[in-house]
Each structure stands twice: as C-alpha cells, then as structure tokens.
Amino acid sequence: MSLWNKLVSLIKKPQKNQVIETVKANIGIRKKIPNWPDWEEMLNTNRLLWEEAKEKAKTGPQVLMGTSVGGALPMSLPESMLAVALTLRGAQVHTLLCDRLLPACILVQKLDIPETTLANYELAKTRCQDCFKAGSYFYQPLALPGHLYSELLSDTEREKAKNLSGEVPLSEIPNYQLGNLNIGEHAYAGALRYFASGNLDNEPYREVVMRRYFEGALLTAFATKNLLAKHNFTVACFNHGIYSPHGIIGEVCRENLVRVVNWNVAYRKRCFIFSHQDTYHHTMLTEPLDAWENMPWNETMEESILEYLKSRWQGTRDWIWFHEQPDEEFVRIAGEIGLDLNKPIIGMLTNVMWDAQLHYRANAFPNMLTWVLETIKYFAQRPELQLLIRIHPAEIRGTLPSRQPLLPEIMKVWKELPPNVFIIPPDSNVSTYAAMQECDSVIIYGTKTGVELTSMGIPVIVGGEAWIRGKGITIDPVSPAEYFQCLDKLPLKIKLAGEELKRARKYAYHFFFRRMIPLQFMEPVAGKPPYKIKISKLDELLPGSDPGLDVICEGILSGSPFIYEAEKLGISTS
C-alpha cells in the first residue's frame, strides 16, 4: 500500500492520536503552523457533520481539485478550503498532488533556484521537500480520495517523457503537440516565467531549462490522462490554468470533456476571480457583453465604483498594488522631466514583458516590445505631440521582478530619445493615475488600467489584447496600419461622456465588483500565504454562510456564471 493510501486509511479510523502522529512522522510536520488552517481542529468542531457529508458525497458528482503544487501557498490554502466546502455541498472531491516528481514547475524561479538544480535533477532534494509537506498538511486531515503523481505514472511513461524531452529539437518545443494537447506552449510559458523574461535569446541555460519544463509537462499529461481514465470527474478545479503543470491538466481535461474551472487571486482584498474552461486572462477577453451591459444601473452603483477606483490610487482596498505612497503632484513632476503641459500629452502604459508575452494575446503587433518601439518611432515624426511612457512598476515591484526590463530594450534602439518622448521608469513613485489624468488620451497594450482610465473619461487606444478591448468603449485597431491611422487622429481633444462614459463605468463595476468574488473569511495577513481562513467552526463553510462562497461553489458544481451580483448582495469595502 502506498504512503498516501496508508495515511488515508489510517485517518478514516477513530484512533485520532495515532493518526496524527503517523501523519506527522511521515511528512515531517511537528506543530501547527501560524495562519495555515488546522483542518483536524476545524473538523472536530462538528465531526458528525463532516463524516455524514463525506458519506453522502460518495454518490455525488466527482470533482478533481488539481492543486498539484502544494507549496504554492496562496493557491493550495484556498483549494483545501474549497475541497471542504464542496464536500459539504455533496461533491465527491478528489485531490491531486505532485510528490517530488516534476523536474520543473510553476513554483520554481531563477531568483532562488539556479539552472544547475534543474540540469542535475536536484529539485526533489530542495524545493520539492517543503512543497509536498505543505500540500500534505492541507489535504491529509480531510481524508478525501487523494492521488499522487508517482502513483499515476508507469516506469515506461517516465522514460518516454525523458526521452522525448531530450530528442525533440529545441526550436520545436514551444509548438509541440501530443495528439491535440498543446504541451510545448505551456512548457515554454513555464520557462519564460522561470527566467522572468519575454524571450530566452540571452539565457545561456535556456535549453536545459526548456527541456526540464517540457519533460514535466509530458509527465503531467500522462499522469492526468491516467487519472481521468480511472474516475468519472464532472469538473476539475485548479489555479492559474497556464504554465506547467496546471495548463497541461486543463488541456487533458478539456480533451476528455471534463469541465474546467480556473481561478486566481483578484486585486481587491478578500476577493478571487474564477472562470470556466480557461484562465481568466483569456476568458475576460471573450466574455459575452450581455453579462454586464444590460444590468440595472443607478446613482448608488456609479458612486460605489468611482469611490473604489479613487481608492486604487493609494491601494487602500486592494491586496495587490505597487506603491505605498504614490506621488500625485504631477505638475511638479512634469516640470522636473521637461514635459510641457501646454502641449498635448499622449500617455502610454506598458506591461511587464514576460507577463504580456504569456497572458495577453498579440493583436495589432506580434509582441509588446515591437508595439513600444514602433510607437516611439511614430511619435518622433509628430513633434507637436508629447508621448509619456509609464513603464509598469511591477517590473521591479511585482511577485517576479522582470529580468528583461523595458528601458534597456528601448535604449538598444534609441541611444537618445526623441525630444518629445518622455519615460517614467518603473522605480519612480509617480502616481500612474495622476500622470494619465493629464493626458489627452492613453495607449495601452494589455493593462487592466484601461478599465479605470475609461471610467475617468479618458479615451483609450488598445494596441494589444486588454480586457477592456471589444467592450464598445475603447478604440481597438486590429493591424499596424489601422493602429497608426488611429494615432493620426491624435490629439482627440474630447473626453468620454454621456452613454459612452456610463458604459465604461458599468463595465468597471462588473469587472471589480461582480467578477471579483469576495470571501469575507479570507483575512489578509503578513507573510506567506498573504491571507488566512478566519472561521471558528466547520459550519461556517455550509451553504448560506457566505454569499461569495455560494457563488463559487455553485459555479464549480453546476457551471453557472462566476458573477457575484454586488448590486444585490452588497460590496465588501475592507
């Protein structure tokens, strides 16, 4: 009997002390960890309810919680909570964890794991130890059906993955398909994320890293296929939906007609964003307009969204922001950088290059860097206009600081910028909102800031694939020629108003208040993960206890839209 199944069988028995000591001895956990949920203690607040729920769930719909990377704490902690909440709603939840098997995954970055660790297959001796312990800490006390990667793979499949990863030409890996599965796409995305770079051209270890991610993607595909062959899952729920392993799990599930739910942490405090079939980075681009454009609209709703958008200048209601004390004195700042406030200013907002490469589909231009360089070239011929480029502060303040910053890339082409082009660098404390408010119009690539700027009445031209695109609010060129035709009309000398402005604010309300679903018991804390589950008893996860949790669970189980009707249910302001 495998270690996992042995532990699960023990947990099902009533000898609680023996169970806990066995778990601790095998996974190396000695004490309760601050801010991590103690599910054993929580289940004991109503053990009868939990045992009855698990018994009833045996005939319920099968749900795969495809966590895999237990050490990704901001993801594995909420997924353990969802496993409990779904079980209480009658679902037979299965869990999936990688048990030190993948040679590269989403949890690995060059910042703290050198390429040599991947090259020598040493990940299992370093990062994987704590990763598997974390996943075990969250899931083993629940005694739900659990699956490990090592149990799902044969020796033949492991050898096949290793051989393929070494034989396929490096240039063919990004587009490699296993049947209809886009294996290479997610392996390449994983490598880009590892290096935190928009391309791998200047990375001397790019080949070995790519091949390890490719091997991990193949192993994930084989393991997921084997798991789906054994169980009749209705839906699979897991974070991200891109990279490896989660992007691969999604590929296999969709091919086998298993419904997919992906999710991620949202911008507002206590909020999460869920989507059907794919990552929200993609589904927000194609969401039907009738999801929001026909919703009732009133003065209270408009005031609520404007109040929240103003709070984003300081980040007081968010748990993702980039400035502690942004400098909003733009008149002084303009004087310091030589910007003439008497001449038209066109704003330009960039993304982090590796982020833009992975999350946002190219539209008018093949990538963000080309868009930036071509735009500067255009404005060099328009001296009557000023281009103000705000490089995204997440280049240095994000979760993964970029190793391919934009400014050096610009300077490779422009040793000296045209006199009418100005740059606010990523380390500047200048408020992006204050700067853009002074602009005639703003050009964006993929940033969500387009949602906010249009709500302020500022016209926006979308050069990439931002979520605001296609909503009937922005100017959306689809080719370079059309893009430059749009620029030819600058300055616009007019702000959004009337029905156009109302539409922009309705979409902002939908995006920030309805698609971002609040869970009031997810309390922000310092550390990792950046929140904890603040409940005192198991009953607090039952239906009717938290409206946001009900929306999420209903969406997972029935396929209903992940829309929290804030106009009816109320808006979380904390």
UniProtKB/TrEMBL annotation:
Name used for this protein in its record: Capsule biosynthesis protein
